[in-house]
Amino acid sequence: MKDGSFWVRFVLLAGLTCVAGACTGEDVVDQEAPQSVEHPDVPQGIPDGLSLYRNERFDFVVAYPDTLLIPVDTSDNRAGRRFVSADSSVVLAAFGRSLSPDDSAASVFDRRILKRQEESGLIIHAREDDSSFVLSGASGERIYYEKSVVYAGRIATFELTYPIRMKPSLDSLAARMADRFGPRR
Length: 185
Hints:
Helix content is about 15%, strand content about 40%. The chain is an alpha+beta fold.
């Protein structure tokens, strides 16, 4: 944050920095988040309001647009739930788990970075603090946005994936969902 406005640090861990589609050889660039624009591939009717999914076992909530995403299944152990768009192009997974005594937000963050690098090698945004982290990037023709929050010996994660062609409209949705994600208060 700078002067109360929303700032995002875009980092490509391969040594490049990408901001709004332009990449340079600099390590890190602070840039105000790009504005979302309407996109014809995004289903119409994404509401300003979001519905809440509450996970009782791990005591967290995630906001999701119920006009875009349909709850499709819950894990057998009640750890989380998946939501999918009607055409299956947009997928949200929200889940929790207990942490081992040696785990922290930083240790889980490090493991997730390694896993993402193994899967695709492209991490565009990486940010962590004492109790949460965010990763986003691209894998093939899909964008992923992942946020995890550590609290009370638990970690809750939501991951939103969607086609790159939907990035201009769904990036702002991912940010709204992230703002409303975390332990129930």
